[in-house]
Hints:
Distance between the termini of chain B: 56 Å
CATH architecture of the largest domain in chain A: Orthogonal Bundle
Radius of gyration of chain B: 25 Å
Radius of gyration of chain A: 27 Å
Strand order of the largest sheet of chain A: 3-4-9-5-6-7-8
Shape of chain A: elongated
Number of helices of chain B: 14
Oligomer: heterodimer
CATH architecture of the domain at 8-168 in chain B: 3-Layer(aba) Sandwich
Strand content of chain B: 15-25%
Helix content of chain B: 25-40%
CATH topology of the largest domain in chain A: Arc Repressor Mutant, subunit A
Amino acid sequence: xxxxxxxxxxxxxxxxxxxxxxxxxxxxxxxxxxxxxxxxxxxxxxxxxxxxxxxxxxxxxxxxxxxxxxxxxxxxxxxxxxxxxxxxxxxxxxxxxxxxxxxxxxxxxxxxxxxxxxxxxxxxxxxxxxxxxxxxxxxxxxxxxxxxxxxxxxxxxxxxxxxxxxxxxxxxxxxxxxxxxxxxxxxxxxxxxxxxxxxxxxxxxxxxxxxxxxxxxxxxxxxxxxxxxxxxxxxxxxxxxxxxxxxxxxxxxxxxxxxxxxxxx
Amino acid sequence: xxxxxxxxxxxxxxxxxxxxxxxxxxxxxxxxxxxxxxxxxxxxxxxxxxxxxxxxxxxxxxxxxxxxxxxxxxxxxxxxxxxxxxxxxxxxxxxxxxxxxxxxxxxxxxxxxxxxxxxxxxxxxxxxxxxxxxxxxxxxxxxxxxxxxxxxxxxxxxxxxxxxxxxxxxxxxxxxxxxxxxxxxxxxxxxxxxxxxxxxxxxxxxxxxxxxxxxxxxxxxxxxxxxxxxxxxxxxxxxxxxxxxxxxxxxxxxxxxxxxxxxxxxxxxxxxxxxxxxxxxxxxxxxxxxxxxxxxxxxxxxxxxxxxxxxxxxxxxxxxxxxxxxxxxxxxxxxxxxxxxxxxxxxxxxxxxxxxxxxxxxxxxxxxxxxxxxxxxxxxxxxxxxxxxxxxxxxxxxxxxxxxxxxxxxxxxxxxxxxxxxxxxxxxxxxxxxxxxxxxxxxxxxxxxxxxx
Lengths: 265, 453
């Protein structure tokens, strides 16, 4: 059983992808209150590439295409090549990035160096080296059939998972998500009770039957949107309240769509 | 390929932030005051129409405020900062090439995505969303960039509730001008693309921009240029190169070239490390005593040190200043400042407090009513670049760094001022006024929006 799990994990790039995504989430989550030009720091493409490549462990390799895809621009594989070509930082193991047809794809310190480094990390078998050096003759000679991991893996490694994060589950668009506290009972049948906390996403389109935050005459309220015969109503979820019809001359706006209710038991 | 820039600028940003969380302020005159409720720093369009200028002291226009029932707010920087980062995050989904220029402005470089935008955004007479009515109400052709700008504008408004203006042009300065025009004239509907116009057509726009409003022309140079007979941006565009070079130096020449459509001001999406850091406020009430003045300066020193450590910087120089009220002509006036060079560049709160208090001891004169104080740190450098001097106790330094780290961590986890420096005082009776501050809707659980249902 251990064998199977191990091969699964060895798919080139899988591990790197996971760590990278986790980091990206962390980046979004840790928000401290500073003025924005100090706070918002949008990583350049170059920085993204460096960050990804830095995380490729010894004994594994990614293709230029994969790196580009992780950085969010799948077609920018040539740019990845150019960026890595300018890299002389020993902390960034750019030799672990190869072409997707299995060939080397160049190295700014000479291709021989790249082979040497990959061999040190047990990625290239000596028998393959000839083919690599005469690359032009044998254009498609794979560097690795499957990656070779060195060292004994920790048995627990396969079972480590991230702790569950409610933010990740409930907030899809952090930039457009706000919290609202409700008081009142007009939405009791929709499961929204007095003093509950609502998660509101403004980026979602307020379509039929969605529970929304509406602004009527400057006041916030929570209701369900319902379209009946071309007329739009704000429906309460409580028999004791009346539906509100939205007419042209009314001062009414939909502020956001409620996605989750947090209720203390 | 030529450069192309889009400037995204939030309309009346602080006022718009207040309006998102308080819809009753919609279509009502609203103004936001600076720190310490001093001057007006943000005005809604309604207030602008009343003729209240930017930076007017609040006490000078109290009559107009009461007469027109203008809603006044103290500035709520926590809220504005959070909303700004939401706007920038929303922008980031359109392109990676963003230069966050200030709290409410960002440049986008569209150079590399020109073809993609041209393909994705095509004017379509049948499609209502992509229709565009020109100024005379006819349906006109809208360029792809303008449609792209509209998409940005729509998304930001929907996601964050903040209205923005978009100016698109071949240079940064021209995109600023396009944005200026959009704000002046509601008929552009928020977006103006002047990137593919001929020189003559651009001149027509430039004629409408007075010289003060050109990006890079300051309040000192503008009157001088006016005296030489330059009134509009168009006049400046056709000036003689050598003459400008002599008068306004290379930066002025750059501005002129930018007006001509030659991009000279580079796109910088990497933030430069900060060079100076200032921590200064005016007091809620005038300070007379040396003790309180020291408390105030210590508070600013603590803030500055925190910010230094956050960015992993150290400071070799510090300047401390105090002054009395500039506006009150009946009081005796006094202002003074003094600098100090640390024996070792530092970000240790204790050192900053000690030196700041020593300077205050030297420059304080009894009998004056002090209105404002502050400290400024110069020539900041990264922590790692520290150069040891001969007599330096390295071990002590490490210990101090560990102490500061522990203090920061505790204050970070358990709320600000869990651990505080007694030098800064505890009651702080001189602290800033902010009387009518709105809630921190996005960063405090007990201050979020409430809905009655």
